[in-house]
Structures are given as C-alpha cells and as structure tokens.
Write a structure and sequence with these properties.
The chain is built from four helices and twelve strands. The protein has 302 residues and is α+β, with helices and mostly antiparallel strands. The chain folds into two domains: 44-204, Barwin-like endoglucanases (Beta Barrel); 229-301, 2-Layer Sandwich (Alpha-Beta Plaits), CATH 3.30.70. A six-stranded mixed β-barrel has the order 3-7-4-6-5-8. A four-stranded antiparallel sheet has the order 10-11-9-12. It has a two-stranded antiparallel sheet with strand order 1-2. Strand 10 and strand 11 form a beta hairpin. The longest helix has 31 residues, at 3-33.
Length: 302
C-alpha cells in the first residue's frame, strides 16, 4: 500500500472513530436529559441538564407542546381547592441551579408578582416533586416554595385572565420566574404564544375567601384599640424580589403618602403600607393601587 493510500485509509478510520464517539456522546446526553426535572432537589453539579436560555420564550431543552393537543382545552375546569395534607418531604430546604430555596411549611396568605412560564411534553407522564405523575393537560403548576399540595390563582397581567391551579411540583429555577404552568393552564391564560408573561400568583386557602378583597365598612370606622390598619401589597419568598417590587411601588405610586416598607414574617418578605387611621381611608387607597398597578391589597390589623 502506498504512503498516500495508507494516509487516506488512516484518515478514514479516524473519521469513522470520531463519528462513533460523537454518536455515543449524543446518546449519553439525551439519556441524561430525560430525567424528571422536579422529582426532587436538583444537584447543582448537574445544572447543565437545564437550558439557561429558554427556547420559544418559555421552556427547556426539547420541551414544548404536544403533537396533537386536544381540541377542548378551553373546557377543562380549573382546579377545585380542597383541604389536603401537606407533604413533609416537600417542606425541606433544597438547592437548584446554585440557589437555595426554603419552602413554606403551612398555608398562609401569599402574593407575588413575576414571570410565568410553562412546561409540556418533555415531562408529561414523569414524576413531579410531589410523587404524582405530571399531566400536561391538568390544571397544575410548579412553584419553588409554595406548600405541596396547595392551590393558587394565577392572573395574566397582560390580559387580566385568571386560572386556579393545584401546586404539585417544584420550579421554575430561572431568574425572575415564579411559576411554571401546565400546558393547559398556559393555554387558558394565553401564555403559549409568548412562552412567558408577567403574572400575579395568590394562594387560595380552602375554607376562606378565594381572593383577597377589602371589605366595605362604615366610613371613618376607626381601628380597635391597640390595632393599626395596614395594606399588604405582596409577599415574596426572596428578599431581592421584594426589594425590586418595593422600588417599583415607590416609582409608580408616588401619591401614596404613608410609609411603605418590607417586613420579614416566617420567611416571607411582605410589602405593606400604612398605618391608616380608619378602614375607609385604607379602602380608598386600596382602590387607587388596584387601578394603577392591578394589585389587590389585603387589609391587615397590627
């Protein structure tokens, strides 16, 4: 065999070997990426499993809509809040993508504004953090810290549409995102096209009012002795998110004369304004806030 022929034969063998290695790595990566996203705490060393750049605006890797979605998604009813036992296994602190999360350990009023995304076919039929099977056609959602299971109202701030979902999974873990919706929940909120939208997430506690409202009371009714009236505007699990929202409030609502600050209560960073001398003054202020920034304040007594 000539030197040229030998060189050509060696190069050909090297090319086949390189292709084989590439195919092996591709199969390995696909296998690694097929594991459930929220089956439990995420090992930061495996963070590469997640795409830090959302494709299509709102989902990971090769995730996306089903090939043949049902035609009656609009008729699927919202989740119906009911009393359920919280899972102790989902109350423990955990780490994901370099962040540490401390889940809530009880059902308490919670309200947060941020970005909603959604997840679909990639995780359909796989276990969620609750141990239940993820059904992309059910009205469920994933949240980093809300109790599992629990219920929440999610409102699209672009169009005012709201849905009620059952929280049974953990995530999302990307910056500024506060909830991952099922495919159907995203469909009903008109999130699918953009992939992600600004929303407000509010807990629903079975047996109580389904949404925070300011009750109409007698004008100039004073607070009881020893109590002061405040308006709670939001609650965050992250101090940074709370500070960002406080800055937004101060920028967009300069007309609020009362002090607006952040209090840390049980691991939640609550933004409140007040105190007010009577319920009527607090109610009028609440209405102004709702008209300006689509937030429904909760009246609290301290």
């Amino acid at each position: 065999m000539s030197a040229a022929a030998h060189h050509s034969f060696s190069y050909q063998k090297l090319s086949y070997f390189t292709q084989a290695i590439g195919l092996f790595l591709l199969i390995t990566l696909v296998g690694c990426g097929s594991t459930s996203r929220y089956a439990g705490p995420v090992d930061p060393s495996k963070a590469s499993t997640f795409s830090t750049k959302a494709r299509g605006g709102g989902y990971y890797l090769d995730d996306g809509p089903p090939d043949n979605p049902p035609t009656n998604l609009h008729a699927i009813p919202d989740a119906i809040p009911r009393v359920e036992s919280l899972r102790p296994a989902n109350m423990r602190p955990y780490s994901a993508l370099g962040q540490t999360f401390r889940p809530m350990t009880s059902l308490t009023p919670y309200r947060e504004q941020g970005i909603a995304s959604w997840y679909g076919r990639r995780y359909h039929g796989k276990p969620t953090a609750s141990g239940e099977t993820y059904d992309m056609f059910a009205m469920t959602a994933a949240h980093p810290t809300l109790p599992i299971p629990s219920y929440a109202r999610v409102t699209n701030l672009h169009n005012g549409k709201s849905v009620i979902v059952r929280i049974n999974d953990r995530g999302p873990f990307l910056a500024n995102r506060i909830v991952d919706l099922s495919y159907t929940a995203a469909y009903k909120l008109d999130v699918l096209a953009n992939g992600s939208v600004p929303v407000v997430v509010e807990t629903i506690i079975p047996g109580t009012a389904s949404s925070p409202q300011i009750k109409t009371v007698t004008a100039s009714q004073p607070a009881r002795a020893g109590n002061r009236i405040y308006l709670q505007l939001a609650a965050f699990g992250s101090a940074n998110n709370a500070q960002s929202f406080l800055s937004q409030i101060r920028s967009e609502l300069p007309s609020i004369k009362h002090k607006t600050d952040i209090t840390n209560e049980g691991g939640l960073y609550k933004i409140r304004t007040g105190p007010y001398t009577n319920h009527e003054t607090a109610r009028r202020t609440a209405e102004q806030i709702t008209q300006r920034i689509a937030v429904k304040p909760i009246l609290t007594m301290r």
